[in-house]
Amino acid sequence: MTAVQVRRLTPEDAPAYRAARLAALQADPAAFMMTAPEFAAQPEDALAARLAPDAAGVTLGAFLDGQLLGLLTLVRETAPPLAHRVNVYGVSVAPQARGQGLGEALVRAGVALARSWVGVTSLHLAVMDSQDAARRLYERCGFRVWGTQPDAVHRDGRVHAEHWLVLEC
Predict the structure, then answer these.
(1) What are the residues facing 166 on neighbouring strands?
(2) What is the DSSP string of 100-131?
(3) Domain count, the chain
């Protein structure tokens, strides 16, 4: 089995990022707030700007055999009273690559990166109640559920609760 490689994405990765993110939104629409059509409408230059060194967030990509198959974005809060917090967004692994360690490699790399930032004391994320495998992954990596928001999201005739998780550094 080929080793998973995780690295920060750059503007040059924008086409691969677009394809991977769009595939994730199509494969698991209930896991994300943004829809595939909303994402598909974003121009390439806006996606490249998201991956620039001065972007508000850092997006990591997990590669297997040179193919981008997993994503995770970290965004540090900017308001001084909240600057100790890092939010984890947009975690996904392509369905054909699940079960090969990409998700865990991404989450562990994201945690390590956030812990390297001065002053960070916690990481935060939310996961829909329909995403049990994702919640278990986060828990394996040290996150714990601290609360659940009922009636959080209404999509496609279903009502979802959202679990809120934290990892203290």
Answers:
(1) 124, 144
(2) SSHHHHHHHHHHHHHHHSTT--EEEEEEETT-
(3) 1
Report residue 87: phi and psi, to 5°.
-100, 140
Q: How far apart are CA 137 and CA 105, in angstroms?
A: 10
Q: Tokens 């040290």 map to which residue?
A: 142
pLDDT of 82-92, one tens digit each? Answer: 999 999 999 99
Percent of the chain predicted with pLDDT > 70:
99
For residue 37, how many C-alpha atoms fall within 13 Å in the half-sphere facing its CB?
0
Mean pLDDT score across all residues of the chain: 95
| Amino acid 29: pLDDT | 86
Residue 124 and residue 143: Cα distance in Å, rounded?
Answer: 8
For residue 107, is pLDDT > 70? yes
List, in sequence order, the alpha helices (H) in the chain: 14-27, 36-40, 44-50, 102-116, 132-140
Range of the domain at 67: 5-168
Q: How far is CA 31 from the centre of its chain?
A: 11
Residue 18, SS3 per DSSP: helix
Query: What pLDDT is recorded for position 60?
Result: 98
Say if CB 47 and CB 20 are below 8 A apart. no
Here the CATH number for the domain that contains residue 109 is 3.40.630.30
